[in-house]
């Protein structure tokens, strides 16, 4: 580090009020130390003692020794100053990095706390390590009461087998990401359907170490899908009850009986009723009434309705 670097660092340090306070404190400490050294030398006459000793014992050339010692001390002080500036710079960089890290952590924590999705982290055994505020709705408990508990405690009946099958498939194929839909039951008995997007971290032996997951509430979509399935089932049942007549029907030209699929002849009324939803009622047409009941033909003529002479 040369003098230019030192001056540049000092100018950067002085640009911050916090750094200026630290610099002023260090300068004050140096001044206090110099004052204490001056007081001690004046009180005990250190410099006069050293000067008299070097003059009386000139043969030891103490003046040269003192000069050399002073030069060494100045060099040592210079290198210590360089090291102190480097340490100050390193500490300043670390503090800035920690502040950036804290700000980034606060931003991500705020994002996690404000999202409507369920954010979760569990270990390889399924124990909850972290969960956001959404646990109040899905699990029925605040995050601090969920941490340390196993995920299967909150699963709806019949969902655990699905989870075990999915985890076995993930561990076998070593997937990094996967999606799965699961249902959970909270402490009030309300069912919530969650679509998970999971991210897996593995140990060296290939087993799952942690699972980080984001879950989206799809309860409304699941209810809609269930309603659609029920409607389809109802329509299928209705279609099964509807019977239609089609194809070529063998019918007797005299008695009008129809031959069914088993080869038996049955009355046309029975055949229509068994092969459709129609019900047959009996009546008589005007022509047949005139032929079979001539005594009534002049009275009713063609105004006879089928239901008037039903059997």
Shape: rod-shaped
| Fraction of helical residues | 40-55%
Give the strand tally: 7
Strand fraction: 5-15%
Strand order, main sheet: write it out.
2-1-5-4-3
The N- and C-terminal alpha carbons lie at a distance of 121 Å
Q: What order do the helices and strands follow?
A: HHHHEEHHHEEEHEEHHH
How many strands, which pairing sense, and closed or not: the largest β-sheet?
Answer: 5 strands, antiparallel
The overall pLDDT, averaged over residues, is 77
Find the structural class using helix and strand composition.
Answer: alpha+beta
What's the helix count?
11
Q: Low-confidence runs (pLDDT<50, min 5 residues)? A: 304-311
* Rg, alpha carbons: 49 Å
């Amino acid at each position: 580090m040369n003098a230019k670097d030192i001056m540049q660092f000092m100018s950067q340090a002085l640009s911050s009020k916090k750094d200026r306070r630290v610099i002023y404190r260090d300068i004050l400490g140096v001044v206090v130390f110099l004052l204490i050294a001056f007081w001690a030398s004046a009180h005990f006459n250190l410099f006069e003692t050293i000067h008299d000793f070097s003059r009386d014992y000139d043969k030891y050339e103490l003046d040269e020794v003192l000069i050399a010692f002073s030069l060494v001390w100045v060099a040592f002080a210079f290198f210590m100053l360089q090291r102190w500036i480097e340490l100050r710079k390193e500490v300043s960089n670390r503090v800035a990095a920690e502040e950036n890290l804290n700000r980034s952590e606060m931003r991500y924590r705020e994002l996690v706390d404000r999202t409507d999705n369920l954010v979760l982290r569990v270990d390889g055994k399924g124990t909850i390590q972290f969960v956001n505020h959404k646990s109040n709705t899905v699990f029925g408990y605040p995050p601090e009461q969920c941490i340390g508990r196993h995920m299967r405690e909150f699963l709806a009946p019949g969902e655990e087998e699905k989870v075990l099958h999915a985890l076995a498939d993930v561990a076998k194929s070593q997937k990094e990401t996967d999606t799965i839909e699961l249902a959970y039951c909270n402490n009030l008995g309300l069912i919530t359907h969650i679509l998970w997007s999971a991210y897996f971290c593995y140990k060296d032996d290939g087993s799952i170490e942690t699972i980080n997951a984001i879950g989206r509430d799809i309860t409304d979509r699941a209810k809609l899908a269930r309603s659609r399935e029920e409607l389809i089932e109802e329509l299928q049942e209705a279609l099964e009850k509807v019977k239609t007549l089609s194809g070529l029907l063998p019918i007797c030209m005299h008695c009008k009986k129809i031959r069914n699929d088993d080869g038996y002849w049955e009355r046309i009324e029975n055949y229509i009723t068994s092969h459709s939803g129609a019900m047959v009622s009996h009546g008589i047409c005007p022509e047949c009434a005139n032929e079979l009941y001539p005594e009534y033909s002049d009275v009713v003529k063609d105004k006879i309705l089928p239901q008037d002479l039903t059997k």
